[in-house]
């Protein structure tokens, strides 16, 4: 019985490693796309909107339904969140931050 549990854990860890490798490859590709678009703010904005939409879909349709139902499991999840970097968040620039960039450009032009 213990041997079966160990094999199951090993298979699960191998699957997680493959998933992480695939996610890292996707991340590298997204970064390369962003660099290719570095002089095209409209396309970069579209890219950010797509990333925000997938973040929302994962959160609402997959993550929330997977949340623990017991206090013990919830405590473990919250401890993991606190230990490993907090809650995922997509930061949005505020309009006044964008305006500061315009002011910097005007100062350089003057």
Structural features, described:
The structure is a single chain. By secondary structure, the protein is mostly helical. The protein has one domain (2-109). The protein is built from 4 helices and no strands. The radius of gyration is 21 Å and the shape is elongated. The mean pLDDT is 83.
What is the N-to-C order of secondary-structure elements (H for helix, E for strand)?
A: HHHH
Average pLDDT, all residues: 83
Q: Helical stretch count?
A: 4
What is the distance, rounded to the nearest whole angstrom, between the alpha carbons of the first and last residues? 76 Å
Q: What is the quaternary state of this protein?
A: single chain
The general outline is elongated
Catalogue the unreliable spans.
Answer: none
- Helix percentage range: over 70%
How many domains make up the coordinates? 1
Number of strands: 0
Radius of gyration: 21 Å
Which structural class matches the secondary elements?
Answer: mainly alpha
- Proportion of strand residues: under 5%
Largest sheet composition: none
Key terms for this structure?
single chain, about 110 residues, mainly alpha, about 80% helix, elongated
């Amino acid at each position: 019985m213990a041997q079966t549990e160990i094999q199951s854990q090993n298979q699960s860890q191998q699957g997680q490693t493959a998933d992480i490798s695939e996610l890292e490859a996707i991340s590298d590709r997204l970064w390369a796309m962003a660099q290719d678009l570095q002089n095209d703010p409209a396309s970069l904005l579209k890219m950010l909107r797509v990333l925000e939409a997938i973040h929302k879909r994962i959160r609402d349709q997959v993550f929330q339904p997977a949340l623990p139902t017991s206090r013990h499991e919830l405590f473990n999840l919250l401890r993991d969140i606190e230990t490993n970097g907090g809650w995922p968040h997509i930061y949005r620039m505020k309009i006044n931050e964008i305006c500061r960039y315009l002011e910097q450009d005007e100062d350089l032009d003057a």
